[in-house]
From TrEMBL:
<dbReference type="InterPro" id="IPR013786">
    <property type="entry name" value="AcylCoA_DH/ox_N"/>
</dbReference>
<dbReference type="Pfam" id="PF02771">
    <property type="entry name" value="Acyl-CoA_dh_N"/>
</dbReference>
<dbReference type="InterPro" id="IPR046373">
    <property type="entry name" value="Acyl-CoA_Oxase/DH_mid-dom_sf"/>
</dbReference>
<dbReference type="Pfam" id="PF08028">
    <property type="entry name" value="Acyl-CoA_dh_2"/>
</dbReference>
<feature type="domain" description="Acyl-CoA dehydrogenase/oxidase N-terminal">
    <location>
        <begin position="28"/>
        <end position="130"/>
    </location>
</feature>
<dbReference type="InterPro" id="IPR009100">
    <property type="entry name" value="AcylCoA_DH/oxidase_NM_dom_sf"/>
</dbReference>
<dbReference type="InterPro" id="IPR013107">
    <property type="entry name" value="Acyl-CoA_DH_C"/>
</dbReference>
<dbReference type="InterPro" id="IPR037069">
    <property type="entry name" value="AcylCoA_DH/ox_N_sf"/>
</dbReference>
<protein>
    <submittedName>
        <fullName>Acyl-CoA dehydrogenase family protein</fullName>
    </submittedName>
</protein>
<feature type="domain" description="Acyl-CoA dehydrogenase C-terminal">
    <location>
        <begin position="252"/>
        <end position="387"/>
    </location>
</feature>
<dbReference type="InterPro" id="IPR036250">
    <property type="entry name" value="AcylCo_DH-like_C"/>
</dbReference>
<keyword id="KW-0560">Oxidoreductase</keyword>
Length: 412
């Protein structure tokens, strides 16, 4: 009977987001995000090499208001749409993809409060988040063994380790997914909101990757952490609206990879224009005037523009889907999932290609550490391994040929 009640409640839930971002809204958040990116650009290479938790960068995001962008104005937030949030992720990725990733996951975790929580939980947590400008990290990685919740007194005890907990070590709040392993609620999968300094939580600081070095994606250990009823957001399920969290994060990835490609292309352009000579076999005076150089840039710029057009369309469509709330149908959820999977495929391939081939037109000197052109390739190469893009191709192909849709998961 409880499952039926949950289903009925989900169907009647209203989304706090309606309509679409206006040009004025997009321009407003673009200006703010570009200001943040300008600050980050001053020492992006130095910070990347230092590989420390991005505490100062998180404070910059907080002071800019970007953390509150999608929180409704009625709850003290910025009242922006998801299209504006995704555009902000893309803009930051042109300069610092690690910080863009933290922001992208922050929005996913805020969204999860709405997807899994009832109206009272939503207002309580998002109002508190807006008032303090909270940063939200997470411990959700579905390929790890589940974190375990065991009944203890009036609540639970949380135990386990989660790897790839992006933003958790620098977050004010942590979104945690955990399985109840005993008691009357055994088998339920719950979403929790825990504060950073809760007793029993330790951050292992073991994130040491080729790229995305400042994404604060290290492991978190939970050792007998006390969980009360007020920490529980709700039950994680497969209802269309609540499961939009996965298409969103895949859409954020598409914008992240696009932003990295745009950043690499612009940095390459700067380097090429600064070169005063040309290859000795060329009849052109400078590399920028060489038709072979122009051909590569023309190819890469055209592909980036195509991905941008698809991303813009998909970002806007996501706002339409999320506005349906509990009325979102299985079919509509599948449509936006496939659209996003298409973007994931092309943004991955174009992002990696641009970040790699940009070296062909900037020359051997661009491989120097001090130039820093490698940061784009390292970042996009690292993050595109998050989940295999070949499975996204299969997802799109199976739907195109047979109308099949993959089972709902934290990857589809």
């Amino acid at each position: 009977m409880a499952a039926v009640v949950i289903e009925e409640n989900q169907q009647t839930r209203r989304s706090p987001w309606t309509g679409h971002a206006s040009r004025e809204e997009l321009a407003h958040w673009q200006q703010i995000t570009e200001g943040v990116a300008a600050v980050l650009s001053a020492d992006v290479l130095e910070r990347d090499r230092r590989n420390a938790d991005p505490q100062a960068e998180v404070e910059l995001l907080r002071s800019s208001g970007l953390f509150n962008l999608i929180i409704p104005t009625a709850w003290g937030g910025g009242g922006g749409h998801w299209e504006s949030a995704l555009h902000a992720v893309r803009i930051l990725a042109r300069t610092d993809a690690s910080i863009a990733q933290i922001l992208a996951y922050h929005y996913a975790n805020l969204g999860a409060v709405v997807f899994y929580g009832d109206a009272q939980v939503q207002e309580r947590l998002l109002r508190r988040s807006a008032q303090s400008g909270w940063s939200w990290g997470d411990s959700v990685n579905p390929v790890d063994p589940n974190l375990e919740l065991v009944p203890a007194g009036d609540g639970y005890r949380l135990d386990g380790v989660k790897h790839f907990s992006t933003g958790a070590s620098v977050g004010d709040a942590i979104l945690v997914n955990a399985a109840v392993t005993a008691g009357p609620d055994q088998g339920k999968f719950l979403a929790l909101a825990l504060e950073h300094d809760r007793a029993g939580i330790s951050f292992l600081g073991d994130w040491d990757a080729l790229g995305q070095r400042l994404s604060a994606s290290g492991s978190v250990k939970y050792d007998g952490v006390a969980v009360t009823s007020t920490d529980i957001i709700g039950e994680v399920g497969e209802e269309p609206f609540s499961s939009l969290v996965t298409p969103y994060i895949q859409l954020a990835f598409g914008n992240l990879y696009l932003g990295i490609a745009q950043g690499a292309l612009e940095r390459g352009r700067q380097i090429t224009l600064a070169r005063k000579n040309s290859w000795f076999l060329s009849s052109a005076e400078t590399y920028a005037q060489d038709p072979l150089t122009q051909r590569v840039y023309g190819e890469l710029a055209s592909r980036v523009a195509a991905v941008e057009a698809l991303a813009d369309r998909t970002n806007e469509r996501f706002d339409a889907a999320i506005a349906d709330g509990g009325q979102l149908t299985v079919e509509a959820r599948a449509d936006i999932e496939i659209e996003i999977a298409r973007l994931k495929v092309v943004s991955t391939e174009v992002g990696v290609e641009v970040a790699n081939r940009i070296f062909e037109v900037t020359g051997s000197s661009s491989a120097k550490t001090e130039v820093g052109l490698d940061i784009f390739w390292r970042n996009v190469r690292t993050h595109t391994l998050h989940d295999p893009v070949d499975y996204k191709k299969v997802e799109v192909g199976a739907h195109f040929l047979l109308g099949e849709v993959q089972p709902i998961s934290l990857y589809t």
